[in-house]
């Protein structure tokens, strides 16, 4: 019932263990020179072709490189590709692998952080074989079109982007690229493999739960009021509108995005997601009112049949000496810098090493500051999938940002931050301090409404504190599909 089959001969799996010179130490007809190491692949392809005939598409995926000393080289890949085509492969899918003992390996090979990292390798293979070549590795649709047009490859393979937006090919074919939900490259999908978890997506809460989170049409359309215009509120409004409800979204800020607007100012992919959500609200007919702070009386007067509270968390200041100094900023103070023209200090200390803190650190370093991040635990980027976390930590340190784990801040002075770890007390210069540690659910609107017996649902950080994007999108979808 399928149209074709890819034989995976890369990424450290069984066939690759024969192809890789660093793994294959055999001395029989399956070891030694490339022609012998490829014998296992060739025999499998020949037998598959014998069984399926000539009118069924079969191709194979190969490592174009294996990023470690003594591993597969591009020349090895080209030689193996020629043998695979001769054995019956209709195309070659050009990927890469790495030393599995190196944490950043996945993001330097088959799931690159750098867009189009493997395109040159795909071109080299295409120039050497008489068969179509499939390229892979963070290739967005525009880049894919360009690569196909200039002869780099014949097809572009997408995985993370298709998880974030399963309808991507159909939307592109229909001429509606603005409706494609972007991947934010949190590596949650790949990261869950490392912990033997179900596939998930930070930007798309339905991934892995498509059978239970079915949007569908509501049997009884209702009037729905969503309070809060961050990702959770926007996603709840989008899905509720898709279900046929009449949806109004109200936010106190003069623009949509909530605190995600700060995240969007630190990352292009975050900005892409914000634009997508804004477009979806317009596309689905959601009535949006910004710059309007709504209270309990206004909710009751709205006439809504159901209310979704998405007011986020209350991000406070730490309870130790110096937290009230003027150069100490909580999350809600970020707008003057990230969205305005305020200049950050030369010496910046960030308290908290999860995604908000890392985003601030990265942006401050890009602005020329010396940055230190103090994280009480030993984990940075907790809400990233493991490969993304390893990549982010590596890159931040490579950019000169100091990441101190197991670090407890104990005092802020006018020009420094004192902190403590297992090695004792330390002090780092600081003329700007940003704290991302203290987040409590904002229940100021939900609690009195619930007490009054009103039908209220709470989503995102308003429910859990710092659940960040993944929880925001998932909880909004869960809530809206149940309305």
What does this entry show, briefly?
The protein is built from 19 helices and 20 strands. The chain has 483 residues and is an alpha/beta fold. A hairpin with a 2-residue loop joins strand 16 and strand 17.
Describe this structure in words.
- With 483 residues, this protein is an alpha/beta fold.
- Helices cover 35% and strands 20% of the residues.
- The chain contains 19 helices and 20 strands.
- The protein has helices spanning 14-19, 34-37, 39-52, 74-86, 119-128, 141-149, 160-164, 168-173, 188-194, 231-242, 260-266, 268-283, 296-302, 335-338, 355-366, 386-398, 446-451, 461-464, 468-482; strands at 4-9, 57-67, 92-98, 133-136, 155-157, 223-227, 246-251, 287-290, 306-309, 313-315, 328-329, 347-351, 370-375, 402-405, 408-413, 416-421, 424-429, 432-435, 439-441, 456-458.
- The strands form 5 sheets. Strands 1-2-3-4-5 form a 5-stranded parallel sheet. The protein has a 5-stranded parallel sheet with strand order 8-7-6-9-20.
- It is globular.
- The model has no long low-confidence stretch (mean pLDDT 96).
